Amino acid sequence: MTQRRAVALVAGAATLLSTTVLSTIFDLYSWVLYSFLSIAVVVIVSICARAVRIPVWGQGLAALAALLLLVTWTFPSGHEFLRVLPSASTFRHFDALLTQAGQDVQRLAVPVPERVSLDFLVAVGVGLVAIAVDVLAVGMRHPALAGLPLLALYSVPVAVHPDSVSWIPFVLSAAGYLWLLMTDHIDRVRRWGRRFTGDGRDIDTWEPSPLAAAGRRVGFAALVLAVVVPLLVPGLSTGVLDRIAAYNSGTGTGTGGTTQLGTSINPISTLRGSLRLGTPINLFQLRTSDPDPGYLRTAVADQITDNGFKPRQSRQAQPLARGLVEPTSGKPSSLKYQRYQAQLTGQRLDDRYLPLFGNPTTVQAPGGANWRYDADTGVVAADRPATAGRSWRTNYDSFDFKAKDLRAAPALSSGDPAVKSNTEVRHIPQITDQVDKLVRGKANEYDRVRAILDFFSPKNHFKYSLQTKAGTSGSAIVDFLKGRQGYCEQYASAMAWMTREAGIPSRVVVGYTHGTRLGNGTTWQITSHEAHAWVEVWFPTFGWVPFDPTPSTEVSGSAVFGWAPNPSEPDPSSSGGSTAGQSGRKETGSPADAGQHGGAGVNRADGGSGSGSTVWLYWALGAVVLVGLLAVPAARRGMLRGRRSRAEDRVLAVSPASDGDPPEVRVDGGDDARTAAGRRAAHAAWDELVDTMVDLRYEVPTSETPRAMAARLVRDESLPAGPADAVRRLALAEERARYARTPADAAGLRDASRQARTGLAERVPRLRRFGATILPRSVLRRWRHAISDTVTAVAARVTGWQQAAHRLVPRPLRTRRADRTG
Amino acid sequence: MTAQHTLDELGAPMPAEQLRETAEAIVGNIERVIEGKPAIVRLALAVLLAEGHLLIEDVPGVGKTKLAKALARSIDCSVRRIQFTPDLLPSDVTGVSVYNQENRDFEFKPGAVFANLVVGDEINRASPKTQSALLECMEERQVTVDGTTFRLQTPFMVIATQNPIEMEGTYPLPEAQRDRFTARIAMGYPSPDAELTMLDLHGAGDPLDELSPVSDADTIRRLIATVRRVHVSEPLKQYAVDIVATTRQSPDLRLGASPRAGLQLLRTARAVAALEGRDYVTPDDLQALVVPVLAHRVIPTPEAQLARRTTDAIVADLVRRIPVPGARPGDGRGHWQG
After folding, report:
1. Which InterPro entries match (chain A) (predicted)?
2. Helix, strand or coil for residue B184?
C-alpha cells in the first residue's frame, strides 16, 4: 500500500516535471503555482481515495471533483457557496474564462503575458493530465500509458511555440517519465517476491540489481540520443525565423523591407490569394491615452493594378524633421475631434513603414534611420527597416465624422489633386454595371459610398474566408465579386476599386487593428494576426475618411466607425447618424485578420456563418456513424442470441408432432435429424451461457466440464434457486449433447437460458453489465481471434508460396554443372 | 471345483434404475461399517464393476481391511482372505498339485485366488516371488499350475491393502504389479463426527459380523455387463488418450501412465457413470478418476520428489490443463478469464 503511495507521488512529480515545458511559453511564473496546486490536490485526493479502497474510476472521479473545487476556489466568480462549492454562475464564469482563453491562445504570441484565462486553462489542463497519469500509472498500473497524457502536456507548448523549445524541459519531462516507470517496476518486483543476488543474499528494495544496470543504461542512452540527435541535425531546427525568411523570399515584390530579425507587413493589397494564419507573433506594443484606439496605418496602396492596389512608387516624401501637416487644417470647424498620445514599442516588427494612427500631429520616430513623411498619404517610412526593439511616440487626432455632415460635403471638383491622383481605375464592364446599379439615384457622395460599402453585406452572400474562390473571368475583382469570399485585402481592394469606378477618390490602407488589451491598462499587444486593410475615401474639406468593408465579426479589434456601420452588422438606421455616438470597438471576435502577413501554419477552417448548418450536419453524421460503429458488436451479439434461441424451435420443427412416441434412437452411432437438432439446440443454449459469462467477465476455463462449471457457478456466485436450476439444466443438456447417445429434451432450454442470463447478470456490478451490453467481450474476442487466425493463415500461405518460389529458382549454376558433368 | 464363468456368461444387462438401486444397496451396506467415506466406497464398488483390482494404501487402523471385508461380505459370493507374510509361498496363493494316493494321480488343490473376491492383506509383506504369483491371476484371470491352466471366476477382484509407513522388512510392490491395480485409494482419517459415530456403533462388537449380503455374484455379473455397455463418445476416448499421453510428456514425471492405464481409466469411468445412473461417460468421471487410477502408476522425477510434489498433485495438475472435449468457449481456445 505504501509502495503504491510512492508511485502516486512519483506520478505527481513526473507530471510536475513535465509542466516545466510551460515555462517556454509563459512570460511570468503564476502558472507554476496553479500547476503545483492542481497536481498536489489530484495526488492527495487519489491517495486518500485508494486508502479507502475506492475503485479506479471512483478515484478518477474523486480527483476530478477535487480539481473542480480547487478551480472554484482559485478562480471564483464571487457567487460560490462557502467559496469552494461551484454554483451556476461559477460555470458561466468558467465558460467565459475558457472562451477568453481560446481567444487568447489564438491572439497572443509567446511568451504570453500573465492572464487569468490562461492560468485557468493551465490549472484545469494540468489537473486533468495529473488525473490521467494517476489513473493510468497508479490505478490501472500501466505507467507506460501514462506517457501519453504527459506527452500531450509536453506537446502543447511545443506546438504553440514558434521557435524550437529548449531541450532542458524535454530532459526533465523524460526523466520524470522514466522515474515513474522505474518506481512502478520496483513496486512490481517487490510484489512478485523478495529479490536475491546470485549468491543468495537478500537485496534491499532500492538497491539496484545487476539487471537494473542494463535497464538504466538503455534508458539513459535513449534519453541522450533523443536530446542530442535533434540538436546535431540542422534540418530539424525549423524555427520561426526560417519561416519568415521563406515568406520574404516567396513574395519578392513586397516593399516592406524585412531582415532576419523581424517581420513586417506587405503593403500590396491583392484581390486574390489565400491567407495562412500561422502562430501569432508579437509585433509591437501600444500604449495610448485613447480608451478605444482605432486602426494603425502603416502604408497606403493608392495605385491600382490588375489584381488590386499597391503603393505608388514616386513619392514626394520629406524628411520627418520638417514637420507634419496639421490634420485639422482645412476641415470644418464643427468637426469634433480628440487629440491623443501614443507610444509604440517594436518587438518582432521590423518594418520600414512606421505604424501610426491616422491624422498624426507629431511623430517622434525611432532613431537609426532616415524617416521621411509623405504628406499625401500620411505615411512615415524609412529607407530600411528600423522598428525592431525601438519605440516611437505620436500625437494624433481622432475625428468623429457624422454621416449628415459627410452628406453635406461639397461636391468633388475634378481639379482637386486628391481627386486627380486617386480616381484612376481599370474599367471592367461587369464592375461598371454593378457600380452603376448601386449608385443610381444616390444624390451625394456619401450615399454613393455607403451604397458600395453596404454591398459587401452578408445579405449579398459575402463572407469572410482566408481563401478566395478561384474564378475564370480573368479579372481578379470580377472573380472576387463572383466568389464573394475573401479576407480584408479583397474587401478593401474591391471597395476602393468600385468607389473609384463611381468617380470617387479612394485608396486602400494597410495597417493593424488595436490588438489585445493587456490587463486593464492602457497597453495593447499587437500580433501578426492583427494586420488589416481597409479603405479611405476622399471627401472635400473633410479629407480622407476611413471605411471598413471587411465583415467585422471576423476581425479582432475591428473598429466601428460611427459614420459608416460595418456592412456585416445589422444597421438600425440607414442614415447612420444615430449610431454615430457609439464608436465602441469590437472586443470579441474570432481570429484576427492577418492582413498580408503569411506565416507557415495551419490552414484556417472555413468559419463562415453560412456553413454552420453543414458543419452541424457533418458532426451529426459523424456522431451517427460513430454510434453505429459502436453498436455493431452489440448488434452481432443480439443476432447470435436470436439465432441460438431459435435453435429450440428447429428441434420442434424436425420432430414429428408430439404424440407421446419416444424418439427413434439409432444405436449404430449415426444421429437422426431430430437427435442432431437436439444436440445443436443444447450446444446453442450452452454457447449462449458461455458467451454471457464471457461478456459478464466470469471465468470460463476450457478444462472445465459443463457439470463442473455449473457447480462452480452455483457455489461461487451463490445463485438463487431459479437461475441455479437453469444453469444446471443447461449444463446437463450440454453434457448429454456432447457425450451421450441421445441429447436431452430441448424444450425449455430457451427459458433456462434466459433465466440463467438474468441470474448471472444480477450478480455483477451494473457497470459491468452495461459494458457487456454495449461492447460484448465474446464478440470482440471472437473477432480478434478471427483476425489473428486470418493473419496467421495468410502468413503461412505466403511462406508456402515463398518456399514454392524457392524451389522454382534454379540452383546455383555450379551445382547444376556438377550434376551434369557428374 | 467351483463353477467358472467366462466373460460371455455375464447375463443380461440391467436397466439403469435397477443398477442404481443395487449399487445403492451395496454402498449402503458397506457404509454401515465404513463411516463417512461414501466416495471411497463408491470407488471400490466401481472398481469391482470395472473388473479391476483395488489397492488400498494407508496408515494402519483407518479401515483398509475393514473396507475390503465389508465389500466382500455385502456380496454373496466366494471370498478368500490372504494374510501376506514373508514366508507365504506362491503355491499358497495359486494352489498346489497334491499326489492323491487313492487315485494315484496328482490332484490340484486350488489356492486362495480361486474366489470372487480376494482380500490380500499387507501385500507388501510377502516376498516378490509370492507377489508375482498374484500377477498372472490378476491380469489374465487364470492360474497355471503344472502346465494346467485354470480359469478364475467372474467377478474376480483382488483387494490388496498395504501400509506405506512401516517399511521395515517389506517388499514394496514393483512397478509392473502396481500397474495391474486399477485404482489405488487412500482411506484417510474419518471426520470427527464419523469417528464419534464409529466409537458409538463399533464399541460393542464388530459390525462386520452383523453385515449380511445384499447382492450376489450373478447380480454383480449383470452389473458388469451393464457397465460394459455404457456409452463413451469419440471425443471422450480422445480425452482419455490425451490424459494418458500428457503424463508421459510431463517434465515432472519420470515414467508416465501405460496404455493399460488408459484402458482401465475408461473402464472405471464407465462404472462410475453407471453408478450415477448415467448411460454415458462424462469428462467429470475421468477427471475424478485420474488421481486414483493414474497416480500410483507414474514415477516422479527426482526434482519433483525434492520439491515434495506427490504424484497425486502432479497428475491432478496435469489434467487441469487439458481442454475438455467438445468445449467451445466462444471461439474454442485458451483460458477465458474475466
Report:
1. Bact_TGase-like (IPR052901), Papain-like_cys_pep_sf (IPR038765), TgpA_N (IPR021878), Transglutaminase-like (IPR002931)
2. strand
Q: How far apart are CA B316 and CA B243, in angstroms?
A: 10
The structural domains of chain B, with segments of one domain joined by +, span: 230-326
Q: What is the nearest CA distance from A696 to chain B, expressed in angstroms?
A: 8
pLDDT at A575: 41
> Which three-class secondary structure state does DSSP give residue A342?
strand
Residue A584: pLDDT over 50 = no
Which residue, chain included where needed, has cell 453434457? A735
Can you say whether residue A273 is alpha, beta or left, with left for phi > 0 and alpha for psi between -120 and 50 degrees? left
Q: B324: which residues sit within 8 A by CB, 6+ positions away?
A: A702, A703, A704, A705, B239, B283
Which residues in chain B land under pLDDT 70?
1-9, 328-338
Nearest C-alpha of chain B: how many angstroms from A695?
A: 8
Three-state secondary structure call for residue B194: helix
Question: Which of A698, A702, A767 to mutate against chain B (most B CBs within 10 Å)?
Answer: A702
3-state secondary structure of A202: strand
pLDDT of A657 higher than 70? no
Q: What are the tens digits of pLDDT across the range A40-64? A: 999 999 999 998 888 888 899 999 9
CA dist A118 and A136 (Å) reads 26
Among A495, A489, A606, smallest CA distance to A251 is for A489
How far is B333 from chain A, CA to nearest CA, in Å? 7
Q: In chain B, what is the straight-line distance between the N-terminal and C-terminal CA atoms, in Å?
A: 65
What does pLDDT average to over chain B?
84
Cross-chain Cβ contact B235/A702 below 8 Å: no
On whether any CB of chain B is under 8 Å from the CB of A96, the answer is no
Question: Which residues are CB-neighbours of B287 under 8 A, at least 6 positions away?
Answer: A705, A708, B319
On whether the CB atoms of residues A405 and A334 are closer than 8 A, the answer is yes
Of A712, A756, A716, A715, residue with least CA distance to A733: A756
What CA–CA distance (Å, rounded) separates A479 from A484? 8
**pLDDT tens figures, B179-211:** 889 999 888 888 888 888 888 877 777 778 888
Q: In sequence order, what are the residues at sequence separation of 6 or more whose Cβ sits closer than 8 angstroms to the Cβ of residue B220?
A: B48, B49, B75, B77, B116, B155
CA dist A52 and A29 (Å) reads: 36
List of residues 6+ apart from A422 with CB closer than 8 A? A302, A500, A505, A506, A507, A538
CATH 1.10.8.80 fits B230-326, yes or no: yes
Rounded to 5 degrees, φ, ψ at B160 are -105, 145
Cβ neighbours around A418 below 10 Å, total:
17
